[in-house]
Amino acid sequence: MLTRWNVIFALIALGAVILAACAPAVDSPTEKTLYVGPYLVDCVGVAPQKCMLVKEDPNADWSLFNDQIAGFDYEDGFEHVLLVLEEEIESPPADASSLRWTLVEVAEKTRSLEGTRWTLDSYLTGEGELADVLSDSEITAWFQEGQTSGSAGCNSYFGSYEVDGESFAIGAIGSTEMYCGPEEVMDQEAAYLAALGSATSYSIAGDRLLITGGSDDTILTFSVLQPVPLAGTPWGLASFYDGAGGVVSVIAGTEITAFFGQDGSLGGSAGCNSYTSSYSLDGDQMSVGPVASTMMMCPGSEGIMEQEATYFAALESVASYQIEGNALR
């Protein structure tokens, strides 16, 4: 004979069984192949951030991936083919993904034209011969999202490009208009930009990029650019924004320097006065604090004090930075 308490316990047990039966099932992890692009792009999650480009079909377009793959160390300039486990999370935190990805294996890792910073080794001269880059100059190239840019040895340049397999074409190239002596530097720059504009295809062998022209002859050879660190490197200013829409060279006979300390300190010479400040980094974003300086007047070369004031204003407005070899932008 059932008592009132027997009935209550029986109903509680039955309810537990019903609740257990109604709980959502969590799928078991699924193994997938994931293709990862060679550079990061700006995206927005909880806050602005950098996202990987991924796709599951090699012939599909890239999609933004604003999550992490546990065990995977992303590296700019390489396309990766990954085997990953995709697992559903039963109760994800608010604003978090309901999926978890874990690396199983890096199936393939290939150096890419895009996302790699390249430094020029040799170029086709006007006489039709490959010549080594001048020993005291550096020419760089960067390709990403259809836009190319870099240093031509004196001036910065920019333009567009199109890639179809290994076919390669550069659009109209623009550049700043500074003069850098000796004359050989400017001759080299003109030859490089002309060769770049005549590119028709490319190939990558290890860490070398070979670009060919219409006759299928090599016209440019590059190697991977190894950047120097921001902190601990003495930097000398080559050019700066003049506040009126142009980029100008430092006044001849003056030297402006910057030294970024490991502790977030920043200091140097502004051409006349010494200065101190601070800086902070968040990825490739940089902010510089108020600048304090000595208060000397430096008569002599015209424009030194105006140049110093413009430099301080530019320094305090810094928003991001980029290092290409031994050049800090």
- Tell me the number of strands: 27
Give the percentage of residues in beta strands. 35-45%
The largest sheet is: 10 strands, antiparallel
Helix content: 10-25%
Low-confidence stretches: 5-26
Give the terminus-to-terminus CA distance. 88 Å
Q: Report the radius of gyration as a whole number of Å.
A: 28 Å
Number of helices: 3
Mean pLDDT: 87
Instruction: Output the helix-strand order.
Output: HEEEEEEEEEEEEEEHEEEEEEEEEEEHEE
SSE-based structural type: mainly beta
Topology of this structure?
Layout: H1 4-22, E1 30-36, E2 41-44, E3 48-55, E4 63-65, E5 69-70, E6 78-88, E7 99-111, E8 117-124, E9 130-132, E10 140-144, E11 147-151, E12 156-164, E13 167-170, E14 174-175, H2 183-197, E15 201-205, E16 208-212, E17 218-224, E18 234-236, E19 239-241, E20 247-249, E21 257-260, E22 265-269, E23 274-282, E24 285-288, E25 292-293, H3 304-316, E26 323-324, E27 327-328
Parallel strand pairs: 5-7
Antiparallel strand pairs: 1-3, 1-6, 2-3, 3-4, 6-7, 8-9, 8-10, 8-17, 10-11, 11-12, 12-13, 12-14, 15-16, 16-17, 18-21, 19-20, 21-22, 22-23, 23-24, 23-25, 26-27
Explain the overall architecture.
The radius of gyration is 28 Å and the shape is flat. Strands 8, 9, 10, 11, 12, 13, 14, 15, 16 and 17 form a 10-stranded antiparallel β-sheet that branches. Strands 1, 2, 3, 4, 5, 6 and 7 form a 7-stranded mixed β-sheet that branches. With 329 residues, the protein is mainly beta. 14% of the residues lie in helices and 42% in strands. The protein starts with a helix and ends with a strand.
